[in-house]
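Following the same procedure, sequence and fold were stored together, as reproduced here:

>
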Amino acid sequence: MPVVPVADALVHYDRFDSTAPGADSRPALVLVHGTGSVGAALTWGQTVPRFADRTVLTPDLSGTERTVDGGGRLTTEGLAAQVIAVIEDAGTGPVDLLGFSMGAPVSATVAALRPDLVRRLILVAGWARTEADEYTRNHFTLWQRLGAVDPEGFGRIVAMTGFSRGYLNTIGREGFEQLVPNMPPTPGTLRHVDLDLRVDIRAMLPRVEAETLVIGCTQDATVPVELSRALHAELARTTTASYAEIDAGHVVFFEKADEFVRRVSDFTAAA
């Protein structure tokens, strides 16, 4: 498990090298997780094997259990610096960079700051500015307050809004109860939530040069699909940006894994 120092952090990441024919000629895929101290392992554990035709990097950003830092307030630019350091340490750039949820504004910032390191950019269930949407601001405020006083309540609201109603009814009560402890409100998780409340990458978006795919989730109750549409509209002003929607809740790569992988693979396969 490689480690790279960035400012006051020791950033851990996993590297999955492929033995598939032609893998060396394909750009590496970097998967950037969203909110939660469990980080990359839980977020991408089921997804990484689906991209076995190429090298995959999965960083654990500050706030996760495996990356140690000084515990200060997080910034989008600071987390972007960690992703940049991982790409440089792995020596795999330029990469195809995918950010999910909180990882979407972080990844867009990476592409803005270091266009030389990003070939294609994929932003999944992302947004540009929290303050612009009262639902989202209050949603993250509720996470923040529940996390401080009611860990079980925090886990339940995260699970309820992380998945579509249909998916939750499909997995049933036992399946839902297994979801509740997946994202405990640790100090690291609450540092992520604090950042979620302050996201504003509007100044970064005109600096993105990489061809971009924005994926919105039509049943997303965490980051409403309208925010992904707005993110795409802003990017399309200054770069080549396409948009797709998947009929799923926030954690789309669990609910609609096949469609998610197909869209990412098709987009990154293009010359």
